[in-house]
Specification:
single chain, alpha+beta, 4 helices, 41% helix
Length: 165
């Protein structure tokens, strides 16, 4: 069976609500999204850096919930920096965007502990040399890139083991 026929068969199965078709297309989606994310993370490892001013850093409630255990949080930052005499402001902490609940918000604080702050009110900022307005406070690390690649291929590996062995 050639690849186009296989894709058509998986499309038909997914249209019918069959697990194999849904799993296949979900795996394709994860592969594309995670490979792009890994590519982007690798690029950020080569971004330039500068020291800027940190204006705020902490956690922000994400969404609305009356139940404390269901309240979601994400990291929050505001910083400014200068590149080639031009002022910029940034809010992104990391290429990895974490949204977590109240019980796991310590993960966000742990992520923020990786921010390099030479002094109490300054911070190292990593920015795209071609587009200096794009910046992060934390560079992607090898472990994070590895995890992204695992997440990219794991659904396909489980798909193959379930439906083709």
């Amino acid at each position: 069976m050639d690849m186009i026929n296989y894709f058509q068969q998986m499309f038909d199965l997914a249209s019918e609500g069959e697990l194999q078709g849904i799993w296949f297309w979900a795996s394709c989606y994860m592969l594309v999204v995670c490979l792009y994310s890994a590519y982007f993370q690798i690029q950020t490892r080569y971004w330039a850096s500068t020291v800027g001013q940190i204006h705020s850093l902490g956690l922000k409630k994400f969404g609305i919930s009356n139940d404390l255990t269901e309240q979601q949080y994400r990291g929050r930052a505001l910083y400014s920096y200068v590149v080639n005499g031009k002022n910029y402001e940034g809010t992104r902490i990391s290429p990895w965007v974490f949204v977590t609940n109240y019980n796991a918000k310590g993960l966000l604080l742990k992520q923020q502990s990786g921010i390099n702050m030479p002094t109490e009110d300054t911070v190292t900022i990593y920015y795209n040399p071609k587009k200096p307005q794009k910046s992060f406070l934390i560079k992607a690390n090898k472990f994070g890139i590895f995890v992204t690649l695992i997440v990219a291929v794991a659904p396909f590996l489980t798909y193959v083991s379930r439906f083709h062995f």
